[in-house]
Write a structure and sequence with these properties.
Blueprint: H1 15-30, H2 37-52, E1 61-65, H3 71-80, E2 85-90, H4 93-102, E3 108-111, E4 124-130, H5 139-149, E5 150-161, H6 166-175, H7 185-194, E6 198-205, E7 209-215, H8 219-232
Parallel strand pairs: 1-2, 1-4, 2-3, 4-5
Antiparallel strand pairs: 5-7, 6-7
The structure holds S-adenosylmethionine (SAM).
The site of S-adenosylmethionine has 20 residues, from helix 1 and helix 3.
């Protein structure tokens, strides 16, 4: 009988899979010490201006993407006084474990990937994302997903690091595991515009972060606004 030759399946991980794995490993290891005072000092200062953007009306739904150890969710919970619905998503089980320990049960925590959100379309009034955007392998797709799960007139608030100098960004991209791209203000704005989001505002938060706020406009409203712009031209 002729010997059968077995062909080993070549399952080389894709660039996307490698990025997800790098983030899981990096943040899995960092999870236990992430809430150290030094890190919290910076993160809080980057996040406070984002918190000020939120109108805490009863019943609103907020999604914190890449919620990490849940510090921002904890702050949102306090300010919402039990009248708002909170959701957090992260790729790292270890980061979520830390979040679970400090958050009440009514805050829903989900393990998932920002590029394929496990939520229905038009669910949230606000989608927040702080200090994580530079870790996403497809930043365009991430914004597309954020917009999909947002209600009409809802807001996306992304706060991400920016250290002014391209050389520092280059170093970060080389040295920090899972880091893909640190954007400047113009690049962030373009990602929002390409996704059909109206830019409400962009600003620096505490020197080393840029906050971009985008709004999802209703179709009819958007067309009318575009008509007005045409007339003005
Ligand atoms: C620097 S931490 C920021 C945590 C928190 N948002 C904060 O402001 O402190 C980045 C987080 O992004 C998460 N992350 C990285 N890639 C992700 C992805 N593709 N989907 C969801 N979360 C991701 C990591 O697990 C980590 O918790």
């Amino acid at each position: 009988m002729a010997a059968q030759t077995r062909v080993k399946p070549t399952t080389k991980p894709t660039t996307e899979q490698k990025n997800i794995q790098a983030n899981k490993t990096f943040f899995g290891r960092w999870s236990k010490t992430y809430d150290s005072l030094g890190i919290r000092f910076w993160m809080r200062r980057f996040q406070i201006p984002a918190l000020r953007e939120i109108k805490f009306q009863p019943g609103i739904k907020i999604l914190d993407l890449s919620c990490g150890t849940g510090e921002l969710l904890q702050d949102l919970y306090r300010r919402g006084k039990g009248k708002i619905k909170l959701f957090g998503l992260d790729i790292s089980e270890e980061m979520l474990e830390m979040a679970r320990k400090k958050l009440p049960l009514e805050v829903t925590l989900v393990r998932g990937d920002v590029h394929r959100l496990p939520f229905d379309s038009g669910e949230f009034d606000y989608v927040l994302c702080t200090e994580a955007f530079h870790h996403y392998h497809s930043q365009y797709q991430a914004v597309t997903e954020m917009k999909r799960v947002l209600k009409n007139d809802g807001k996306i608030i992304i706060v991400d690091i920016n250290f002014f100098l391209p050389s520092i960004h280059w170093l970060f991209q080389k040295l920090e595991p899972g880091c893909v791209k640190i954007n400047n203000q113009g690049e962030m704005g373009l990602l929002f515009k390409k996704n059909g989001l109206k830019i409400a505002r962009q600003q620096r938060n505490f020197l080393f972060a840029i906050m971009t706020i985008g709004q999802k406009e209703e179709r009819g409203k958007k067309d009318k606004n575009m008509e007005k712009e045409e007339i003005r031209k």
